[in-house]
Write a structure and sequence with these properties.
The chain has 128 residues and is mainly alpha-helical. 91% of the residues lie in helices and 0% in strands. The chain is rod-shaped and about 120 Å long. Residues 15-63 form a coiled coil.
Length: 128
């Protein structure tokens, strides 16, 4: 009889230890679930920002193509226009292309570089 009581006390001790361990595991699971939800939210935000940046980049590229086609059209018109001396005006052509490169292509290239270089950082930060 005493043996059964001793075994019962021992089993109660094991049971309480197992219940305490199970409680700790449940707390750890709850913490991991919270971290997983936070990471999923950060990932969704990074994806949305990436899509926004890609859309903005596409719009900027489209506008640059529009500007370049307009410049090419103006260039063709200038080449087709006869001048008073019978010669074309190359310095103006070079000035026009130089201005196009300086004011349109160079800033766009810098913007694309900045956007492109920040995309991997945003993506990596969302997976931490």
């Amino acid at each position: 009889m005493f043996t059964l009581q001793a075994e019962g006390v021992e089993m109660d001790g094991r049971n309480s230890a197992l219940l305490a361990e199970m409680s700790r595991w449940r707390q750890q699971v709850a913490g991991l679930e919270e971290r997983l939800e936070a990471a999923a939210g950060e990932k969704a935000a990074a994806e949305a920002e990436r899509e926004h940046c890609e859309a903005r980049q596409a719009a900027l590229q489209e506008s640059v193509h529009g500007y370049l086609s307009e410049i090419a059209s103006l260039h063709r018109r200038l080449q087709g226009r006869p001048s008073s001396s019978g010669r074309r005006c190359p310095p103006f052509r070079y000035l026009l292309w130089g201005l196009a490169i300086f004011f349109i292509l160079d800033p766009l290239e810098r913007l694309i570089f900045l956007l492109w270089s920040n995309l991997p950082n945003a993506f990596v930060q969302s997976h931490r």
